[in-house]
């Protein structure tokens, strides 16, 4: 239901699914029994061959076997892809299978895990299927086939190599090899360990690795690639005089860059840099992003014959809109870039290949390329908030802004407040009991102040 302010009442919607899939604490809420029944409910909808992969978390093998069992019991055949990034599973499903399941909690801490379900295009399943799965889970029973129709298990141990090689085929690999770039890579002990080092070596770069051993306890750093977690990477980039530092999250669908001077490059900047190159190469096109991304994306689109479509936050929403609109390129502000001619989802392999290509072909440093982009300043913060309070907090903030200010509101996702000198968005996480608050303005001070203001509004109404 939608309340009078146009804000979605979260309590009236999905009972299990968040922004993308189901994410909970492992072996507490997300038990093998939970995972198996949920997978059987999904399998009841697919009734075909389903690819299954997982990240490096300690609970992933347990949950992956439970998911496979649930799928088999519903009559689906299962293809086990092993441990690999989420976009690797999406790539496989789009090319070969009827559906897919990825066991991952992405950037969340080690005690979490999750289950992402994919449709036949490798996109996160649509809301109507999520609701159908929930109805089966809570109110009905999934299909349980007779013994003679239980599905079979297969393995595909070639998909990672195929995935990496196809990404390389989409860029000017020779230009990258000739540039002899020096790269420092931090996979955060996540699924990128199985793809990113091999991609970068195949592209002829001089590679130094950090935290590139698979370890579900994430001993090197927290799996979320935010600046405070990347101090090792920043230090090594500067000490080695590297051309670029690259970091991934736990399931390697996001990419964050460190420039040659050791400066953290915001995901918005990476998005805008690649957007600019894609529009130049294709003489324009449709760009899809979310309401939480930078004005710079709109500025670049205007300059290079592009048009921008904004969605609610969530990479599956961006991916689906890219497919529906035959879009050129898309993504989010967190370093998750989507190349729809390759994978309908955030993809680190293609992002790395494209950024290395831009540096090589433009013959400029990453800092020089970033300096050529439209200049805006951003600030991002988060604050804890119980899930059952989120809708009240959003409604209260929107009501206060409408009654006490002349600011324009965008309620596409959370509450986005548009001011003359920038904007601030306050939105609940779909995967954690937190609110995220982003702001952008024409100075860092203003961006900082707007973010603090947004956080203060959350605190005002949070019990």
Low-confidence stretches: 1-12
Overall geometry: globular
Share of residues in strands: 15-25%
Mean pLDDT: 94
Strand order of the largest sheet: 1-5-4-2-3-6
CATH architecture of the largest domain: 3-Layer(aba) Sandwich
Specify the helix fraction band: 25-40%
CATH superfamily of the largest domain: Alpha-D-Glucose-1,6-Bisphosphate, subunit A, domain 3
Secondary structure: number of strands: 20
Figure out the total of helices.
Answer: 15
- Structural domain tally: 4
CATH class of the largest domain: Alpha Beta
CATH topology of the largest domain: Alpha-D-Glucose-1,6-Bisphosphate, Chain A, domain 3
CA(first)-CA(last) distance: 23 Å
- Give me the Rg, rounded: 22 Å
Describe the protein in words.
- It is a single chain.
- 38% of the residues lie in helices and 22% in strands.
- It is α/β, with parallel strands linked by helices.
- It folds into 4 domains: 10-156, Alpha-D-Glucose-1,6-Bisphosphate, Chain A, domain 3 (3-Layer(aba) Sandwich), CATH 3.40.120.10; 162-262, Alpha-D-Glucose-1,6-Bisphosphate, Chain A, domain 3 (3-Layer(aba) Sandwich); 267-371, Alpha-D-Glucose-1,6-Bisphosphate, subunit A, domain 3 (Alpha-D-Glucose-1,6-Bisphosphate, Chain A, domain 3); 377-461, TATA-Binding Protein (2-Layer Sandwich), CATH 3.30.310.
- The strands form 4 sheets. The protein has a 6-stranded mixed β-sheet, with helices on both faces. Strands 8-7-9-10-11 form a 5-stranded mixed β-sheet, sandwiched between helices.
- Helix 9 packs parallel to helix 10 and helix 9 (267-282) crosses helix 12.
- The longest helix is centred in the C-terminal third of the chain and has 18 residues, at 444-461.
- The protein is globular and about 65 Å long.
């Amino acid at each position: 239901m939608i309340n009078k302010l146009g804000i979605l009442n979260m309590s009236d919607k999905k009972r299990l699914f968040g922004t993308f899939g189901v994410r909970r604490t492992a072996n507490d809420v997300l038990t093998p029994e939970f995972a198996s029944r949920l997978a059987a409910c999904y399998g009841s909808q697919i009734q075909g061959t389903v690819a299954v992969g997982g990240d490096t978390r300690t609970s992933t093998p347990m949950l992956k076997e439970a998911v496979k069992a649930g799928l088999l019991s519903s009559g689906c055949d299962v293809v086990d892809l092993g441990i690999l990034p989420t976009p690797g599973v999406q790539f496989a499903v789009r090319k070969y299978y009827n559906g897919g399941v990825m066991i991952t909690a992405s950037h969340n801490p080690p005690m979490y895990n999750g289950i992402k379900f994919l449709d036949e295009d490798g996109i996160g399943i649509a809301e109507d299927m999520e609701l159908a799965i929930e109805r089966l889970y809570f109110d009905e029973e999934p299909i349980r086939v007779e013994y003679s129709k239980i599905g079979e298990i297969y393995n595909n141990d070639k998909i990672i190599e195929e995935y990496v090689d196809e990404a390389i085929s989409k860029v000017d690999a020779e230009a990258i090899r000739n540039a002899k770039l020096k790269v420092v890579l931090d996979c955060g002990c996540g699924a990128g360990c199985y793809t990113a080092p091999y991609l970068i070596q195949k592209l002829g770069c001089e590679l130094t690795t950090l935290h590139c051993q698979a370890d579900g306890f994430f001993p090197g750093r927290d799996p979320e690639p935010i600046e405070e977690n990347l101090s090792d990477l920043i230090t090594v980039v500067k000490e080695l005089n590297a051309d670029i530092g690259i970091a991934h999250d736990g399931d390697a669908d996001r990419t964050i860059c460190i420039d040659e001077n050791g400066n953290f490059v915001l995901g918005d900047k990476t998005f805008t840099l690649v957007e600019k190159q894609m529009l130049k190469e294709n003489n324009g096109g449709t760009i899809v992003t979310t309401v939480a991304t930078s004005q710079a994306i709109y500025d670049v689109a205007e300059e290079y014959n592009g048009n921008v479509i904004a969605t609610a936050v969530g990479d599956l929403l961006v991916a689906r809109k890219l497919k529906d609109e035959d879009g050129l390129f898309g993504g989010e502000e967190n370093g998750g870039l989507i190349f729809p001619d390759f994978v309908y989802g955030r993809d680190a392999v293609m992002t790395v290949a494209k950024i290395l290509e831009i540096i090589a072909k433009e013959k400029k440093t990453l800092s020089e390329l970033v300096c050529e982009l439209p200049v805006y300043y951003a600030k991002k913060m988060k604050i804890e908030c119980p899930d059952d309070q989120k809708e009240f907090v959003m409604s209260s903030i929107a009501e206060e802004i409408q009654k006490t200010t002349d600011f324009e509101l965008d309620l596409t996702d959370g509450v986005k407040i548009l001011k003359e000198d920038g904007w601030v968005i306050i939105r609940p996480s779909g995967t954690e009991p937190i609110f995220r608050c982003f702001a952008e303005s024409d100075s860092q001070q203003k961006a900082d102040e707007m973010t603090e203001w947004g956080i203060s509004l959350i605190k005002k109404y949070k019990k």
